[in-house]
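Structure tokens please, single chain.
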Amino acid sequence: MFTGIVVEVGKIYDIQKIAQGAKLKLFSKKVIHESNIGDSISVNGVCLTVCDIDKSKGILSFDVSHETLRKTTLGELKKDDYVNLEPALTLNTKLGGHLVSGHVEGIGRIKKIEKIGSDLKLEIEAPEEILKYCIKKGSIAVDGISLTIVDILSDSFTVVVIPHTANMTTIGFKKVGDKVNLESDIIAKYIEKFVNQSLNVRQERLIEKLKDYGYI
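Here you go.
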């Protein structure tokens, strides 16, 4: 579990495609010092497990599955690309963003970037299965960054990025047309499940009552 507060921007050292996925290696200056083999780290919003550490070179290594390459933008990464890094949440971590699982649900595309004073307003096209969990002033993870939704449009949503976030993450040098990993608020999905289960139980009870009274 993560918070969506990026600790560091890492740099891709190498990514090797293999039959069942890929081996990803990246440079890290901060996150690597508190990492151990087996730890979970969010890489552009994707929860990956550290499989090797070379502290002398500052390199973290991860195995990436075929499914992850297919469902996220990690498969499009190249040497020297930059990625957002965040170590897993601990019990004494400040929850400055929102609860992020690191399980990317879909890929979005930046449709528009507007400069508003010192801020950036981004419009991001998103799949319907993600938009249905979006609400105004709600949270969403974009490449692992916890952002607040401003508006919801027919096939997209907008967010405003402050200068600090633009400077500390990869979002500051994104361009129109760039793809981003998206994860909607996990709490919204739990609420949907509980509500649907409750409705199903009520419907079953209603049908039983109708049968008891001979209506069906």
